[in-house]
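tool=predict chain=A
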Amino acid sequence: MTARATIDDVARLAGVARSTVSRVCNGSGYVSPASRARVEDAVRVLGYRARAAARSLRTGADVRLGIVIDDPTDSFVAGAIRGAAEAAEASGVTLLLSIVGRDGALPEAVGDSDGCLVVLAAGGGAGCAPDTERAPVPLVVVASDDRSSDAARVVQRAAALGRDAAQGLIARLSGVG
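tool=predict ok
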């Protein structure tokens, strides 16, 4: 496995200062067209992506998306988690995973997130019908109604649902949606 490219790697390849790379990646401040092109080329060549943790330390803004699940062994739940994780990673969002308690109550950790996806397995979740009006954060419920025996199809569909639900919630939390 190769090491992940850093901002310093991009600056070296582009022949510019680290601050120039930062301005290009953040879309802030002036950068000459020639320097911008060199940085963008270096980003593409190296496959550079800014680290979410570094960005949140700099800006103080760390969006935390909770995922509450009822059955960690269910293929729909696993697929939805995968899709949500892809959306969170693409947006630089931190995921917090919790499992619904035996009493069906939402975990206290929901309050530690900025918004929460509740993912319920097919035939499950009867004990977890979250009260979205009383929840401490915005909730989106993703529930399976698919009783198909084709696990690959279920996981693929669930991943798309999880990704779409997470993207919508992330946009809402970020003030974009």
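DSSP finds six helices and four strands in the chain. The helical segments are 7-14, 18-26, 33-46, 52-59, 75-91, 151-174.
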